[in-house]
UniProtKB/TrEMBL annotation:
<protein>
    <recommendedName>
        <fullName>Alkaline shock protein 23</fullName>
    </recommendedName>
</protein>
<dbReference type="Pfam" id="PF03780">
    <property type="entry name" value="Asp23"/>
</dbReference>
<comment type="similarity">
    <text>Belongs to the asp23 family.</text>
</comment>
<dbReference type="InterPro" id="IPR005531">
    <property type="entry name" value="Asp23"/>
</dbReference>
Length: 116
């Protein structure tokens, strides 16, 4: 459980995986993002994640009942990274807070590669 919300009828508990999936899907909706990156611990290389494993490039932590989100992405060559990053941050913050009701305090976008 990464966070919980107390309602009048009970509690809502969110797992890290649920929040990471929302973050991953929100990221992939943004223009210029080729995919999520996952570190291969054995070789130390970053690789593009294939298929529906969007939460593999996302780390979610909770501090004082606010979320701290770190994500690792690969962007398309020729796109402005600062514009892509700002778009990602705004979309993730809106989607996570809108879907879950949890507060997002920090979002860190790590660009791990550029694809042609």
């Amino acid at each position: 459980m990464i966070a919980s919300i107390a309602e009048e009828n009970g509690y809502i508990d969110y797992s890290e995986e649920v929040v990471a999936n929302i973050v991953g899907l929100s990221t992939m909706e943004c223009y210029g993002v080729v995919g999520m990156a996952s570190k291969n611990a054995k070789d130390g290389f970053w690789e593009l994640i294939k298929g529906g494993s969007f939460n593999k490039g996302v780390r979610v932590r909770s501090q004082n009942n606010e979320l701290i989100i770190e994500l690792y992405i690969i962007v398309e060559y020729g796109t402005k990274i600062s514009v892509i990053s700002n778009s990602i941050i705004q979309r993730i913050k809106y989607n996570v807070e809108n879907y879950t009701g949890l507060k997002v305090s920090t979002i860190t976008v790590n660009v791990q590669g550029v694809r042609v």
